[in-house]
Amino acid sequence: MGSLECDVLIIGGGIAGLSLASALAPFSSVVLVEAETTLGYHTSSRSARQLIPSYGPEPVVDLTRRTLDLLADVQGSTGLALTVPRSFLLIGSAADVEAKTTAGMRTLSHAEALELCPQLRPESFEAAAIDPDCVGTDTDLLLEFHRRSASDDGVIILTGAPVTSAVYDGEGWNVRAGRRGIRAGVVVDAAGAWADGVAELCGVRPQGLVPYRRTAAIVGAENAPRVGTPMVAAADDSFYFRPDADGVLISPSEAEPAEPGDAQPRAGDVERLIRRLDSLTTLGISSIRRSWTGLRTQRDTGLPIVGFDAGHPGFFWLAGQGGYGFQTSSAIAELAVVLLTGADPADLGADPARTAGAEAALQPA
Ligand SMILES: Cc1cc2nc3c(=O)[nH]c(=O)nc-3n(C[C@H](O)[C@H](O)[C@H](O)COP(=O)(O)OP(=O)(O)OC[C@H]3O[C@@H](n4cnc5c(N)ncnc54)[C@H](O)[C@@H]3O)c2cc1C
Fold first, then answer.
1. Distance between CA atoms of 251 and 285, rounded to whole angstroms?
2. Fewer C-beta neighbours within 10 Å, C or N terminus of the chain?
3. pLDDT at 1
């Protein structure tokens, strides 16, 4: 098979790689390679599908708010239902809720919280707060939107094409991905849990990224909350649940270090959470319809890594999105376009001061 040439080669076909591909396509020639035969196969098909503007450190909050604006623009121009209203209700002890109540959230009385989620047993929480700006998102639709808009703008997307070697000759990269050879000016590492491994393959120093397991399940419940009612999360990070078209989505919110790979639920994890939810709620969970585990990968600062590697002019990081990969996706892609092309943020409709702040906060170590 012949070789390909491009300005930018994106490694990884999850939300990070695909959202950059669609944002960058008008400016550069782009090839995206994905190791699996299906785009979004790993963490990007395993999320809770929630965009929570009050969640995360300050740079993440800024990126989330910008992403919500950008998605609203897409929604307005395409008519695609990328987001749906779904607020975020935090419950727990008074101390835990106070510690987690950030700007943009509002404290609720016990009665107000119960009105929003009557399935909570009154004695199961002391205090509550709400993020009313939080929305749910259709991640499949979002991935497909980016795939289609990237393809329409000329991006070549190869699946079943794992990058196995990459050599820089001072002017560009010679990369082997599956059976294809690719010549690229810049390599973007959007390889999720594998991002440090891809860096090493390219001869670049890793960033100390750690993948953390998180499991979720869709369960059947006799007293399921109505679609459109809030996602409910424990302020001590011990569980969350939310209504879903197929039942109720539940998660034990675990964050255990793991190796990169096709993570799977462990026997007993979901059952233990169901017993806990039975004691805290009147959901009446009756069956496990499906369950999955994904890897949320981040560095010790908890912030994504976006920018050229300090020691390698041809290597660009787009990794470490942790539990914020969807809610920050469009803003991170926008920042990456600015850094990769030298475009003026104002020309993209972005605030130059905020863009500079994000660049500083997210730069590789
Ligand atoms: C249970 C759970 C709930 C979550 N809930 C939310 C949420 O509500 N909101 C939110 O914003 N985020 C959430 N997240 C986090 C979010 O899903 C991730 O941040 C995001 O999906 C990461 O996307 P990514 O593109 O970086 O990684 P991935 O989707 O893992 O994509 C990386 C891709 O790179 C490919 N790759 C690796 N090595 C190579 C190679 N050598 N060659 C070619 N390709 C390669 C992989 O096959 C993979 O497809 C959740 C995560 C989990 C697990």
1. 13
2. N
3. 57
Q: Is residue 97 within 8 Å of 113, Cβ to Cβ?
A: no
What is the number of residues in the chain?
365
Query: What DSSP character marks residue 230?
Result: P
Q: Six-digit token pair at 23?
A: 């944002």
Cα separation, 72 vs 249, in Å, equals 25
Instruction: Kindly give the number of the ligand 1 atom that is closest to the alpha carbon of 12.
Output: 34
Q: Which domains does the chain have, with CATH numbers?
A: 4-49+139-209+301-362 (3.50.50.60), 88-132+210-298 (3.30.9.10)
Q: Are 363 and 319 in contact (CB under 8 A)?
A: no
User: Is 2 a residue whose pLDDT tops 70?
Assistant: no
For 254-278, the pLDDT digits (tens) are 999 999 999 999 999 999 999 999 9
Distance CA 354, CA 75 (A): 23
- Does residue 294 have its Cβ closer than 6 Å to ligand 1? yes
User: Are residues 143 and 123 in contact, defined by beta-carbon separation less than 8 angstroms?
Assistant: no
Q: Is the CB of 71 under 6 A from ligand 1?
A: no
Q: Whole-angstrom Cα distance, residue 354 to residue 365?
A: 20
* Average of per-residue pLDDT values in the chain: 97
CA dist 336 and 267 (Å) reads 40
What is the secondary structure of 188-226 as a DSSP string?
EE--GGGHHHHHHHTT------EEEEEEEEEEEETTPPP
Residue pair 130/87 in contact (Cβ under 8 Å)? The answer is: yes
- Pocket mutation for ligand 1, best pick of 43, 303, 306 (most atoms within 8 Å of C-beta): 43
